[in-house]
Amino acid sequence: MTGTPLTFGTAGLRGPMREGLDAMNVTTVSRATWAVAKVLKDRCLGGSTVVVGRDARHHSDEFATATAETFAAEGFSVVLLPYPAPTPVVAYAVRRLNAVAGVQITASHNPPADNGYKVYFDGGIQIVPPTDRDIETAMRQAPTDIARQPVTPTDETLIEEYARQAGSLRRTEGDVRVALTPMHGVGGALAIDVLHRAGITDIHTVATQFTPNPDFPTVAFPNPEEPGATDLLLALAAETDAEVAIALDPDADRCAVGIPTAQGWRLLSGNETGWLLGDYLLSNLTPDEAQKTVVASSLVSSQLLATIAADHGAHHVETLTGFKWLARADQDIPGATLRYAYEEAIGHCVDPDAVRDKDGISAAVVVCDLVVALRNQGQTVQDRLSALAAKYGVHRTGAVSVHTDADAVMARLRAEPPAQIAGIAVGVEDLDQLRGQRRTDALIFTGEGLRVAVRPSGTEPKVKCYIEVSKQPAADVAASGAAAESELREIEAAVTGLLAPA
């Protein structure tokens, strides 16, 4: 087989489905599984339990079978989920069973031609270095003929237990009218089951997107963040007079939220949802509980959660990008436990005791709970966002990405960092010069009311830039918001020019 072997990125192996070492196929999956098994056995964990799940993409069933049977041949006790299921179910199952590893076959929100291989280790947490490098090293040692042993899929017990746990997260009582789409993925039926368990039954679904379809026929890209991807959902929400709209990505580990406003329906940013959920979960804690609580966000997410956490007396931790880091945010804070984590790419972890990863379905339950709590106070979600802005200042976030030679652009920005962006004087912090776990290939530019984080993509040849404009609390939130929005547009244009190839 030809090509450069796939490597573990932010969320595992991902690539196009075709022949070659640089693609997803049975050979790649078998080699990766043999390598994971070797690493586990090298750590004296041979013979332990592993969990294998899959989404409904092309060849996911074939890849999951190869994964399960390779683990079995290597002497592991394999729990193979009975049918396509959301990624959070695997994370839950690994944690619930105290398994040593789990593998989910999924490419999440990637295009239809892609598939992927996501690895969890102890605690149902995604792997981090050096484990990923250890697995890649072992892959190069994999034999040509990898043994397989048949595996009988398990029953629905673990999926049922996950549904029961996710459905138990309500604090309020009362129904919510919800517009929902699983974006042609595997989250639809389970999400409805979970919401029903939570007392939410007035659910309207986008019919053309409800049944799993690996071709994702109604969207250009099956990612709720992509322009136009949620048009059908928001139209349904308006048509049914819904109180909230929820879009899951195809493997249901991410959750996008839409709300009605005076100007019509709009999709919240991942940061806005993060502020709302973080504030809501912290607001339900006693002061003593708050002191023992950790909330976390990634370095490319908004800084507002840190302010909210401090106001509630809780700990805030900023981590590197990816839930493999966010899930570990409480590891260096003795006596405190992670209760919430989010990243701007609509990933939310609302029940870390059960799922130490982003989980779109449990997040949907808490979003609905928040809607009811606000309704009981005579407020809307937009009202709450305005209240947060009045208290903590207006924050506006945006993102710019440019397809380019990422290494060249990062080198240029390090050699000649800009002294100003859109007329705002900025300083720079090079995270590649740090020691410890915050070290990464990223630059943080900060100025008055401005933060710009720049990093290369972990999956594509492009540079990503994350922008946050903030204003001090003001009496006129609307005017402050309009000013911040205008400033954000100027900065996005300036950053686009800054990232352009020289």
Rg computed from alpha carbons, rounded to a whole number of angstroms = 22 Å
CATH superfamily of the largest domain: Alpha-D-Glucose-1,6-Bisphosphate, subunit A, domain 3
CATH architecture of the largest domain: 3-Layer(aba) Sandwich
Whole-number count of domains: 4
- Helix % is 25-40%
Task: Kindly report the CATH topology of the largest domain.
Answer: Alpha-D-Glucose-1,6-Bisphosphate, Chain A, domain 3
Number of separate strands: 22
Q: Overall mean pLDDT score? A: 95
CATH class of the largest domain: Alpha Beta
What count of helical segments does DSSP give? 15
| Model regions low in confidence, pLDDT < 50 over at least 5 residues | none
Shape: globular
Largest sheet: 6 strands, mixed
What are the main properties of this structure?
globular, Alpha-D-Glucose-1,6-Bisphosphate, Chain A, domain 3, 35% helix, alpha/beta, six-stranded mixed sheet, 502 residues
Characterize this entry briefly.
The chain is an alpha/beta fold.
